[in-house]
Specification:
alpha/beta; Rossmann fold; Nucleotidyltransferase, domain 5; eight-stranded mixed sheet; 28 strands; elongated
Length: about 550
């Protein structure tokens, strides 16, 4: 169905009207063929842009811009990581211009995190189109604020990125600008609805372009592309690639902004949120893996059950109304490092149905121990598993005075017991502290992308840690509760291991290595009297004091 038309283009003398025949000269025909075959030739010779210094001027692409155009032209799926103010919009507009002019019946979607941004990109497209020679233009059928339709049947739509932006439509090329700035849920839903419209063709294209912003879905697509885990061709542009940007420019930019802002917007670092539980450098080292098995309900398997291994399933229960997620992690707890071997994440399943999803997983993983969060509706889930399904390995908790909650199987005063764990302030505080230690000391292997993604937005609050506004922490909370459990005597009895002792000893060994002093060269019970370092400085030992070495040239002492 054609886009809604208007008459704005009819009074625009720069546009070629539809239905008008045009007779090419020999030279124009030759140029038309050259442009049709080579988008870079077309861009360099016929595309004009508006610049800050010169106004309307011919576009003279830099080498990295030519590389982007060439890569998009030759491949179906391309992802570009680019710094700010590097001409990315101009570059993409030039290619889109070529694409719709020389390919009939093409539908193109220009999408951005904001509708105004998408319309601005389309406006730049219109400016470039208006300044083409008439013999290169297609006749115009429609020239609207948010859409264009040309005489050759090609159309362009500009819209915000949402799960319904292109639902029900078929597109030959989808360009998504600033993909890293699209909210998590919208990006996930968008690709669930968009990808079927692309995958149905053999020549269709997807182009993702953005400056990084955290370890989000753009980070996942980029990392998978670099590691050849998807079909996207990665193109990276550095700030040094832009002519005129040198060390002096860098220092001036940092002085006018900040080092952190420069790292994100120009160095293109995938910076995480500030104040996260896990330090940013450690977050960058966490490596997610593709599940070996998954289903539509959100269950993912990263490692199949191993005979004689012990497993624990930790579940965080929500109300299942499309907001927070039901989530559980299955962990191999046979010995450190513990491994996250399966996950579940679903915000639509009824809590009353959740036990039916949990039970077969518990059985599959060698009758795994189950620890269910029971602050709210989770108590029903735990009760159904224990009483209705008669599952034997439900871990419970009991209150023990000053000790607070302790892990067990349900014992003592029935009124003080629970078939699961209540997330209290002390439990969360201890769990967060131990989770940080487990990850930093490489005692916990996280395989799931969404878990790592949640960790990048799991930030400090006044009393504890929680997800940033607009994000989730359901999978992270399964690991927080698991980490709390590792501190419990009952857990150690189950496994005959003490993770806190292992972490302490590992940390102590590292500190001792780092603090070992240098400079004492011993031969039996004697100490060498003199020593010459690589720079020629002669050091002499003070045998009458503490064995410090003296710089004989300066008469000063110090540790060598």
């Amino acid at each position: 169905m054609p886009f809604k038309t208007n008459d704005q283009y009819r009074d625009n003398p720069l546009l070629k009207k539809a239905g008008i025949e045009f007779e090419f000269t020999k030279e124009q025909l030759e140029e038309y063929v050259k442009c049709s075959n080579d988008p870079m030739y077309f861009t360099k010779n016929y595309v004009k842009i508006v610049t800050l210094d010169e106004g309307l001027a011919p576009f003279e692409p830099y080498e990295y811009q030519n590389k982007i155009i060439r890569t998009v032209h030759e491949n179906r799926f391309v992802i570009c990581k680019m710094p700010r103010q590097s001409g990315k919009t101009t570059t993409i507009v030039s290619y889109l211009l070529h694409y719709v002019l020389f390919n009939p019946d093409m539908n193109v979607a220009i999408l951005a995190n904001k509708q105004s941004t998408a319309i601005e990109i389309l406006h730049r497209f219109k400016t470039a189109y208006e300044n083409l020679p008439k013999w290169l233009q297609q006749g115009v059928f429609s020239w609207n604020k948010g859409s264009i339709e040309l005489e050759n049947g090609s159309r362009i739509l500009a819209a915000s990125t949402s799960s319904s932006a292109v639902r029900g439509s078929s597109f030959n090329l989808i360009f998504i600008d600033e993909f890293a700035f699209i909210p998590h849920e919208i990006a996930e839903e968008f690709f669930a609805s968009v990808y079927p419209t692309i995958s149905s063709g053999s020549e269709t294209k997807v182009l993702l372009v953005s400056t990084p912003k955290g370890l989000n879905m753009f980070y996942k697509f980029w990392t998978d592309a670099v590691n050849k885990r998807n079909l996207y061709i990665p193109v990276e542009v550095r700030w040094q690639d832009v002519p005129g940007r040198d060390e002096k420019w860098k220092q001036e930019t940092i002085a006018n902004t900040s080092q952190e802002q420069f790292n994100q917007e120009f160095e293109c670092d995938f910076l995480q949120s500030s104040g996260t539980l896990i330090d940013g450098e450690k977050l960058r080292l966490l490596t997610y893996h593709r599940p070996i098995e998954s289903n539509a309900n959100g269950f993912k398997v990263y490692e199949a059950p191993i005979e004689d291994h012990k497993y624990m399933l930790v579940c965080d229960v929500s109300r299942g109304v499309g907001k927070d997620f039901h989530a559980f992690s299955v962990l191999d707890i046979t010995k450190p490092p513990y491994k996250q071997v399966a996950t579940f994440r679903n915000n639509e399943l009824s809590p009353l149905v959740l036990p039916s999803a949990i039970y077969p997983v518990l059985r599959q993983y060698n009758n795994a121990f189950a620890l269910i969060e029971v602050n709210d509706i989770g108590a029903q889930v735990a009760d159904i598993l224990k009483h209705d399904m008669e599952y034997p390995n439900i871990l419970g908790t009991a209150y023990r005075g000053r000790k607070g909650q302790v892990l067990g199987e349900g014992f003592g005063n029935e009124s003080q017991n629970a078939n699961g764990i209540r997330t209290t302030v002390p439990v969360k505080r201890i769990g967060c502290s131990l989770l940080k230690s487990l990850i930093v000391e490489d005692k916990l292997v996280i395989n799931d992308y969404w878990t790592i993604d949640e960790l990048t937005t799991f930030v400090a609050t006044k009393e504890s840690y929680e997800a940033e506004k607009g994000h989730h922490d359901d999978l992270v909370m399964t690991l927080v509760l698991f980490s709390w459990a590792t501190s419990q005597e009952y857990f150690r009895e189950l496994l005959d291991t003490d993770i806190r002792k292992a972490i302490y000893e590992n940390s102590l060994d590292r500190v001792e290595e780092e603090m070992t002093p240098f400079g004492f060269i011993e031969y039996g019970d004697s100490i060498e009297d003199t020593f010459v370092d690589d720079s020629g400085t002669v050091w002499t030992v003070d045998n009458e004091s503490t064995g410090n070495w003296w710089d004989t040239n300066r008469g000063s002492s110090g540790w060598y």
